[in-house]
Amino acid sequence: MKGRKVAENISCTCAVSTKSIYTQLLRGGYIEMMLDAGVRFLELACGPCCAIGQSPATNGVAVRTTNRNFKGRSGNPNAEVYLVSPESAAATAITGTFASAEDILGEDVKILGTIHEPEEYPVNDSLIIPPLSPEEAAKVEIVKGPNIAYLPVPEAPEENLTAKISLKAGDNVSTDDITPASAEFSSMRSNIPLMSKYCFHRYDPDFAERAKNLGKSIIVGGENYGQGSSREHAAINPMFLGVKCVIAKNIARIHKGNLVNHGIVPLLFENPADYDRLEQGDGLEILSFPEQIKAGRVKVRDIDKNFEFWAKPDMSESEVEVSLDGGQLRHIKKQLREMGISTKD
After folding, report:
1. Of 264, 270, 251, whose CA–CA distance to 309 is shortest?
2. Which residues pair with 82 in a beta bridge?
3. How many angstroms separate the CA atoms of 277 and 38, rounded?
4. What is the pTM of this model?
5. Phi and psi of 230, rounded to 5°?
6. Dihedral angle computed from the Cα positions of residues 264, 269, 274 and 279, in that order, rounded to the nearest 10 degrees
7. What are 294-329's pLDDT values in tens digits?
């Protein structure tokens, strides 16, 4: 970027990840250099990655150095978002079309190999407020605005679960499909009753109302269910709508952890072919649910088609404990009570 300008038909923004790195950039003169080149700096927070600002135009093209470009994640389902290295992003901003560092620097590109991260980054934690004593903390009043609601806490798995399939999803359903990204939806993150109305909004606009009317339900998924960002709202919103478990061919690791933490039991088909036998709206029955989770093998009966199939809990031993307690919040409260520490419901 030094001595160059961003192409006139390009909007180039830079999101610095931490205060420490921002300080290093200031000391090195990089902030001024990039500002002179026409780069706009964003605040130290979530931004274009989850469509809070800088959403591409309809059918527009964006080149980004983040690690996710699922359809609609940029805030525009028609945008074409390409993931590239920081060097390629800078070169593209300068040329106005896809380019590499070598296109800009030529033989001087080798200078990039001499640039290394510092051994240590400056740390200034003078603005961090130390924890209060338990006595002082008890006096603190938590002030909440009208758009902030208490986080719902799920119950432990019921002994015998009978529920309909509220959604039969295909392969590679992402957390963006479950809980859409954008400034509009992110403003609802502290209000689960409101945000849950948009659960699967882009994937199946009728899901939220259907699940709510059912009261409790089960989601069936294909391969790689819950891929993508570690968005725990993709577990909280279905939980709020009464989803008790997800049965899929396989479940993405981070999303599986969020399901466990928020009281939704993750199950995998023992025989993936059983996925094809199920339909949205089928009634499923699981008897002695907690005991079967402990045993590591769960028999599921399709009431409508009168056949049975097996699923296995996709959980470690510790995750099984959390799941049987009804999620992480109830699990922690249980542990505190066992230690003789009183908790509020």
Report:
1. 270
2. 63
3. 57
4. 0.77
5. -80, 55
6. 10
7. 999 999 999 999 999 999 998 999 999 999 999 999
